[in-house]
Structures are given as C-alpha cells and as structure tokens.
UniProtKB/TrEMBL annotation:
This is L-xylulose reductase. Homotetramer. One of its GO terms (biological process) is xylulose metabolic process. PANTHER family: D-ERYTHRULOSE REDUCTASE (PTHR44252), D-ERYTHRULOSE REDUCTASE-RELATED (PTHR44252:SF3). It comes from Papilio machaon. Belongs to the short-chain dehydrogenases/reductases (SDR) family. GO terms for molecular function: carbonyl reductase (NADPH) activity; L-xylulose reductase (NADPH) activity. Keywords: NADP, Oxidoreductase. InterPro entries: L-xylulose/Carbonyl_redctase (IPR051737), NAD(P)-bd_dom_sf (IPR036291), Sc_DH/Rdtase_CS (IPR020904), SDR_fam (IPR002347).
Length: 244
C-alpha cells in the first residue's frame, strides 16, 4: 500500500497522541495529506517539528462553535478519523454530572460536530469519503466504573449507524472500531498492575492486549477503497473478548 493515500486529504482528531498519532503517522507514510487536530499544543508542536509536512490544528473539541470554525477553515477532506476521547472512570452510584457531561461532550458530541462539517463538504464536492470513529468494547459489555465512558461509546455506535444510513446514499461510509485495552503510553500506565491486567487478559481469547498498530491497521483498512462495501459496522478489535 505504498503511497496508497496519495492526493487524499484526511483529518484525524486526537492526532498527536495514542491511537490518533499512530493513525496520523501511518497515513503520512502512505502518502496522505494528513491534518492532526488536538487541544494539546505542546504535542502538536512536537509532531510538527518531527514531521513538517503534517498539518496541525489546535482546538478544544468541547467548544462547539470554535471547533466548527477551525474544521471548516481546514477545507475539504476525503476521510475523517474521530480519535479524540477521554476516559473518566467513576462507579455508577458516584458518577457526577460533570464526569458524565465531559464524557459525552468529548467522546460523542465532538464526533457529531466535526463529522457534520466534514460530511457536508464531502457531499458538496461529490466526494465518496470515509468516516471512522473510535468506540470501545465497553460499548458492548459492562465494566465497573465505566458508566459515563460506556454511555458515551454506546452513543458513538448508535450515531455511526445513523450516519451510515443518512450518508450512504451520498457514497460516504461511516464505521466504528471497538478496541479492547490498547497499549498506548496511557494504556501501559493504567494497566501496569499485573494482577489487574491478568484478570482482564483472562477474558480475551488471544490472551493479550492490543498494540496500537493493530488498531491503526483496522482504521486504515476502513478508510481505504478496499473497504468500499463496508458501511455502518462496529468492528471489535478485542482478541475475541466479545465472543465469550
């Protein structure tokens, strides 16, 4: 797939850390004109310093109007990857409104906002594009302390299906990926406790957590023309966790 995405312009939110950074770098390697969007100014600067040809945009996706202005100013895209997200963990009985609202604002509402802007321009320019959103296995299964996170990701799955229905007639595909624990820098820190990690891994049929590149590869596939007949899918990348 060398230079497979040449002449394709793709926006990646949450694009300077974790899965998002992995997607940005792989798209760059494959020749895409890629834009990394994040609120992390320092990490964006570092990314731009290392890869000058990667375009960056800094905005807090919780700000609806400002995010809309920034994304609109970036022009037309052939693809969008919604990676920006937050994991705020509190048990059901203690979950605060601020925790719930922040989870929905970043994990769900921002996808609605950014995808609207990008999809409208795809339609106006007759681009048969692809939108991929990051969901989670937590949208499909119950976990302790995940009430806000799971609700936000369940909404991503539902929104993906509606996007597929409404955008499909325009030739725009919308899909989601639903990873298990992914060994980003943050993931390694959160799951450093071996007792906790082994308990989770015992439920994954392949007996391990996902590496970043394994999620990136699935996203790249869904963005590509090789997935032209895949629309409205929520793809588990979970080593078989949801099969049990």
């Amino acid at each position: 797939m060398d230079k497979y995405f040449e002449e394709k312009r793709i926006l990646v939110t949450g694009g300077c850390s974790g899965i998002g950074r992995g997607v940005v770098l792989e798209l760059w390697r494959l020749g895409a004109n890629v834009v990394a969007l994040s609120h992390q100014a320092d990490n964006l600067y570092k990314l731009k310093s290392e890869y000058p040809s990667i375009e960056t945009a800094c905005v807090d996706v919780r700000d609806w109007d400002r995010t809309r202005q920034v994304v609109d100013s970036l022009g037309v895209f052939h693809g969008l990857v919604n990676c920006a997200g937050v994991g705020l963990m509190e048990p059901f009985l203690e979950c605060k409104p601020t925790t719930f609202d922040a989870s929905i604002s970043i994990n769900t509402k921002a996808i609605l906002n950014i995808s609207q802007v990008v999809a409208k321009k795809m339609i106006d320019n007759k681009i048969k594009g692809s939108i991929v959103s990051i969901s989670s296995q937590a949208s499909k299964a119950g976990f302790h302390d995940h009430v806000a996170y799971s609700a936000s990701k369940g909404a991503v799955d539902a929104m993906t299906r509606v996007m597929a229905v409404e955008l499909g007639p325009h030739g725009i595909r919308a899909n989601a990926v639903n990873p298990t624990v992914v060994l980003t820098e943050l993931g390694r820190e959160v799951w450093a406790d071996q007792t906790k990690a082994k308990q989770m891994m015992s439920k994954i049929l392949l007996g391990r957590f996902s590496e970043v590149h394994e999620v990136v590869n699935a996203i790249i596939f869904l963005l590509s023309d090789k997935a032209n007949m895949i629309n409205g899918v929520e793809l588990p990348i979970d080593g078989g966790f949801l099969a049990t």
